[in-house]
C-alpha cells in the first residue's frame, strides 16, 4: 500500500477547516458553561439526590479531596462490577473478570487511559461496557476538564483559596458538554455503519456455509464518547480498526475530528475566561503547529517505507487507507485518546517512534480533554519563568508572580511523567521475567515496553499491541503508573491553581513579558520540546531509532 | 463522618445517578434514534443471499474453493467473534516469513509470478476482519473466479467494478473492492443459474 498524498492533504485540510469553524463557538460555549451561575433543572435534581451543595466555592484542597474521593470510588465500583459480572445483568454469558485484569481496567478507565489488557469480545458483556466503562469515558473526561477549568480560575481570581466547585464542574462538563455532543456523534456514527443493537446476528458464510455470529452491542454510543472524551478504549479488541467501530474512510475522518474537537476548543475557552482572547490564540497556535508538523512527519515516515523492508500493509486496513491511518495515529497519540485504526506495533520503525514521541511531548498538542490545556499552561509557566530570567525580571503570568512556590509545583509536575515512564521501562526491561512479556526480540521488544509505559504514564492507552495481554505483574505495574501519571499531575495543577488564586494581581508594565504573540508562542513551543520530549531521547535511541537504522 | 467519608458517600450517590443517565438512558436513546434513522447499519449491515442471512457487508469471511474472491490474510481466521492484528514488528523475522509464505501461496493459487502479488494480499489487516482488497488483488483473482464460476471474465470484471468503492474515496482513502458484497453477488448469480 502507498500513501496517497492528495488524500492526505485534503483530509488534513478538511480537519483544519472543520476544527477552525468549531473551536471558537465551542470555546465560547465551554466558557459560558463553566462561569454561569444558573443550574439546570436536571443538575439541581442530581445535586439534591447526591447531597451536593452546588453553591459552595471550594478551597483548592477541598476540590482535590472531592476529585480524589470520586476517582477512588469509581475505581472500586468498576473493579467490583467486573468481578461480579457473572451475577450482574447483560453479561452475555461472560463470568467474573480475572482480578488483575479487572484492577488494571478499572484504573485504566477512571484515569482516562483506556489501556486494555483484555480482549473485549472474550471478556466483557454489554453491562460492563455500557454501565461501567462507557460511564467512565464520560466522567474521566469531565474530571480532566474540571481540573483545567480550576487552573484557569486560579489565573483569573485573586486573594482567594477557592477554585470553584468540583461537583458542579463535573456535572456541567458531563451533561452540558459531553453528553449532547456524544449523542449527535453517535447517531452520525450509526449512519456510517457503526452498530447499536442488543445482540448479534447468526449467519452462514457465503463460501463455506460455516455458522458464524455477526457481533452486536451498544457500540456507537460508546464509540462516540470514546473519541470525544479522548478515552480510546475499544468496544472490540481491534479498536477503531474494527469495521463495526470504524466502517469506512469517512467515519475514520469523523472520529479524528471528534477526538480533536474539545482539546482544540479549550484554548478559546481559556482566552475568554482570562478576558484576553490573544492568550487563547497563542496557546492554540503552539498546539496546531505541533499537530501539523507531527502529522506530516508521520506521513513521511509511513509513506517513505512503502518500498523498503516489509513495506506498508501489515496492520493497515485496505478500506481506510494509509493516509487516514497516518492522520489517526498522530491525532490519537498527541491527544490522550489511544484509539487506533492501524496496528501501531506494525508501523514502520520511525512511525512507531513518532507515535511515542507524540505521547512523550506530554500530550499537549492538543492533548486530552482538559489535560491538554493544563499541560500546556504548566509549560507556559516554565516559558514565562525562563523568559523572565532572560530579561532579568520577576516572571509574571497574567499578572501573577511566578515565584518559588509555583515553580516547585511545576518542576515536580514536569518530572512526574518521565520518571514514571522511564522507571517502569527500565525496571521491566531489566527483569527478564517481565521483559518476556514483550513478544518481539531486540530493539522492537524494547520499543514495545517503552511504548507501554509511555502510554500508561501519559494516560494515552494505545499500545504496541503484542504486549497488552500480559500477566499480573505487568498489569499491576501499569495500573500503578496510570494512577500516579493521572493524579499526581492533577493534584499539582490544583495546588498551582490555589497558589495563583491567592496572589493579588500585579498590573502589567512596559517591562512585562507578553504571554501572547509570535515571540511567546515560539518560546512556549521550544520550552515544550526541551523539557518534555528531549528527556526521552536516549530511550528512543535504544528502541525505534535503533530499529530504523538496523533494518 | 470525616471529610473524606462524606465525599465518598456523595461520590457513590452521584455515580449511581450518573450511571442511570450515561449508562442506560444514553445508549437506549442512541439505539432508538439509530433504529429509526439507519436500522440496516445499526443492526450490522446484514446482507442476504437467496433469502438467507449471509453475513455483514462490513466484515470479511473465510473463503475456500476457487469460485470466490479471497479477502486479505487475517490474524483471527476471519472469525467475527474475535478481532486482532498480528502485532508483529516491521523488522521481525516472523513477519518477513509470513509475508513470504502468503506471497508464495497467492502466486500459486492465482498462477502468477510472486512479484506481481500486491501488498494487501500478503499482509494481515489491523482488525483481521477487513473485507476490502485492492483493485490490483481483485484483478489478480478475476481469471480464476471466472473459470470456476463459469461466468466469463467480462461478467466477473463488471461485478468487480460494481463493488469497487468509487472515486470519491480518492479524497477519503484509497480505492478498494469489498470481497464480501462481491462474493454475495457471485453467490446470487450462481443461485439464479
Automatic annotation (TrEMBL), chain A:
Is Ligase among the key words of this record? no
Q: Do the record's keywords include Kinase?
A: no
UniProt-listed Pfam families: KdpA (PF03814)
Q: What membrane topology term does the record carry?
A: Multi-pass membrane protein
Main localization category: membrane
What parts of the sequence cross the membrane?
6-31, 62-84, 138-156, 177-198, 249-269, 281-306, 364-389, 410-435, 474-498, 519-541
Q: Which domain of life is it from?
A: Bacteria
HAMAP family linked to this entry: KdpA
What is the protein name stated in its UniProt record? Answer: Potassium-transporting ATPase potassium-binding subunit
- What gene name is listed for this protein? kdpA
UniProtKB/TrEMBL annotation, chain B:
Q: How does it sit in the membrane?
A: Single-pass membrane protein
Q: Does the keyword Membrane apply?
A: yes
Compartments in which it is found: Cell membrane
Write out the entry's keywords from A to Z: ATP-binding, Cell membrane, Ion transport, Membrane, Nucleotide-binding, Potassium, Potassium transport, Transmembrane, Transmembrane helix, Transport
Q: Which family does the entry's similarity section mention?
A: Belongs to the KdpC family.
HAMAP family attached here? KdpC
Biological function: Part of the high-affinity ATP-driven potassium transport (or Kdp) system, which catalyzes the hydrolysis of ATP coupled with the electrogenic transport of potassium into the cytoplasm. This subunit acts as a catalytic chaperone that increases the ATP-binding affinity of the ATP-hydrolyzing subunit KdpB by the formation of a transient KdpB/KdpC/ATP ternary complex.
Recorded hits in NCBIfam families, A to Z, give: kdpC, PRK00315.1
Q: Which PANTHER family match?
A: POTASSIUM-TRANSPORTING ATPASE C CHAIN (PTHR30042), POTASSIUM-TRANSPORTING ATPASE KDPC SUBUNIT (PTHR30042:SF2)
The entry describes its oligomerization and partners as: The system is composed of three essential subunits: KdpA, KdpB and KdpC.
- What is this protein identified as? Potassium-transporting ATPase KdpC subunit
Q: Which organism is it from?
A: Arthrobacter silviterrae
- Taxonomy of the source species: Bacteria, Bacillati, Actinomycetota, Actinomycetes, Micrococcales
Amino acid at each position: 500500500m502507498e500513501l496517497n498524498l492528495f488524500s492526505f492533504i485534503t483530509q488534513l485540510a478538511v480537519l483544519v477547516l472543520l476544527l477552525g469553524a468549531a473551536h471558537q463557538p465551542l470555546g465560547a460555549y465551554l466558557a459560558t458553561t463553566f462561569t454561569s451561575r444558573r443550574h439546570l433543572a436536571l443538575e439541581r435534581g442530581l445535586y439534591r439526590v447526591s447531597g451536593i451543595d452546588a453553591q459552595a466555592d471550594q478551597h483548592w484542597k477541598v476540590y482535590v479531596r472531592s476529585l480524589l474521593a470520586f476517582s477512588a470510588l469509581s475505581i472500586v465500583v468498576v473493579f467490583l462490577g467486573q468481578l461480579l459480572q457473572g451475577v450482574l445483568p447483560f453479561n452475555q454469558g461472560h463470568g467474573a473478570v480475572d482480578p488483575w485484569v479487572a484492577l488494571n481496567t478499572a484504573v485504566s478507565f477512571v484515569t482516562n487511559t483506556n489501556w486494555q489488557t483484555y480482549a473485549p469480545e472474550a471478556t466483557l458483556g454489554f453491562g460492563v461496557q455500557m454501565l461501567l466503562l462507557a460511564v467512565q469515558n464520560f466522567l474521566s473526561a469531565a474530571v480532566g476538564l474540571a481540573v483545567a477549568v480550576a487552573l484557569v480560575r486560579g489565573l483569573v481570581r485573586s486573594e482567594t483559596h477557592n477554585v470553584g466547585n468540583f461537583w458542579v464542574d463535573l456535572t456541567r462538563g458531563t451533561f452540558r458538554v459531553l453528553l449532547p455532543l456524544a449523542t449527535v456523534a453517535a447517531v452520525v456514527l450509526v449512519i456510517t455503519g457503526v452498530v447499536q443493537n442488543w445482540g448479534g446476528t447468526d449467519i452462514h458464510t457465503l463460501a463455506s456455509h460455516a455458522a458464524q455470529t455477526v457481533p452486536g452491542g451498544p457500540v456507537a454510543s460508546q464509540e462516540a464518547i470514546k473519541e470525544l472524551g479522548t478515552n480510546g478504549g475499544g468496544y472490540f479488541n481491534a479498536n477503531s480498526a474494527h469495521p463495526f467501530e470504524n466502517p469506512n474512510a469517512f467515519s475514520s475522518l469523523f472520529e479524528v475530528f471528534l477526538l480533536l474537537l474539545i482539546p482544540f476548543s479549550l484554548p478559546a475557552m481559556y482566552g475568554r475566561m482570562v478576558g484576553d482572547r490573544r492568550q487563547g490564540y497563542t496557546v492554540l497556535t503552539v498546539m496546531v503547529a505541533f499537530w501539523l508538523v507531527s502529522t506530516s512527519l508521520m506521513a513521511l515516515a509511513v509513506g517513505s517505507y512503502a518500498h523498503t523492508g516489509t513495506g506498508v500493509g501489515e496492520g493497515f486496513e485496505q478500506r481506510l487507507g494509509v493516509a487516514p491511518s497516518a492522520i489517526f495515529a498522530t491525532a490519537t497519540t498527541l491527544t490522550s485518546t489511544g484509539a487506533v485504526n492501524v496496528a501501531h506495533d506494525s508501523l514502520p520503525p520511525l512511525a512507531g517512534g513518532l507515535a511515542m514521541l507524540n505521547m512523550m511531548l506530554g500530550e499537549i498538542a492538543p492533548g486530552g480533554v482538559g489535560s491538554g490545556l493544563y499541560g500546556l499552561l504548566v509549560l507556559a509557566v516554565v516559558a514565562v519563568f525562563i523568559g523572565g530570567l532572560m530579561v532579568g525580571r520577576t516572571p509574571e503570568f497574567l499578572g501573577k508572580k511566578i515565584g518559588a512556590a509555583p515553580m516547585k509545583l511545576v518542576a515536580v509536575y514536569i518530572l512526574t511523567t518521565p520518571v514514571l515512564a522511564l522507571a517502569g521501562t527500565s525496571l521491566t526491561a531489566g527483569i527478564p521475567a517481565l521483559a518476556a512479556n514483550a513478544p518481539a526480540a531486540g530493539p522492537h521488544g524494547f520499543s514495545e515496553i517503552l511504548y507501554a509505559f509511555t502510554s500508561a504514564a501519559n494516560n494515552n492507552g494505545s499500545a504496541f499491541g503484542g504486549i497488552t495481554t500480559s500477566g499480573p505483574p505487568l498489569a499491576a505495574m501499569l495500573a500503578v503508573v496510570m494512577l500516579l501519571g493521572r493524579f499526581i499531575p492533577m493534584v499539582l495543577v490544583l495546588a498551582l491553581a490555589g497558589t495563583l488564586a491567592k496572589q493579588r494581581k500585579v498590573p502589567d508594565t512596559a517591562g512585562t513579558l507578553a504571554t501572547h504573540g509570535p515571540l511567546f508562542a515560539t518560546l512556549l513551543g521550544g520550552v515544550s520540546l526541551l523539557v518534555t520530549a528531549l528527556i526521552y531521547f536516549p530511550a528512543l535511541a535504544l528502541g525505534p531509532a535503533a530499529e530504523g537504522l538496523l533494518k | 463522618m470525616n471529610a473524606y467519608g462524606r465525599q465518598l458517600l456523595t461520590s457513590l450517590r452521584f455515580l449511581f445517578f450518573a450511571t442511570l443517565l450515561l449508562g442506560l438512558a444514553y445508549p437506549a436513546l442512541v439505539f432508538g434514534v439509530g433504529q429509526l434513522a439507519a436500522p440496516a447499519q445499526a443492526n450490522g449491515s446484514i446482507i442476504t443471499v437467496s433469502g438467507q442471512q449471509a453475513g455483514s457487508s462490513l466484515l470479511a469471511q473465510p473463503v475456500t474453493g476457487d469460485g470466490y474472491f479471497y479477502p486479505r490474510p487475517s490474524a483471527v481466521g476471519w472469525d467475527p467473534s474475535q478481532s486482532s492484528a498480528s502485532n508483529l514488528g516491521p523488522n521481525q523475522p516472523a513477519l518477513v516469513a509470513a509475508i513470504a509464505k502468503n506471497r508464495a501461496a497467492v502466486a500459486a493459487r492465482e498462477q502468477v509470478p510472486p512479484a506481481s502479488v500486491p501488498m494487501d494480499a500478503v499482509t494481515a489487516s489491523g482488525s483481521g476482519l477487513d473485507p476490502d482488497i485492492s483493485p490490483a488483488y481483485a484483478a489478480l483473482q478475476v481469471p480464476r473466479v471466472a473459470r470456476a464460476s463459469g461466468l466469463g471474465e467480462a461478467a466477473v470484471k463488471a461485478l468487480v467494478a460494481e463493488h469497487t468503492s468509487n472515486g470519491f474515496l480518492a479524497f477519503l482513502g484509497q480505492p478498494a473492492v469489498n470481497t464480501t458484497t462481491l462474493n454475495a453477488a457471485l453467490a446470487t448469480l450462481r443461485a439464479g443459474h
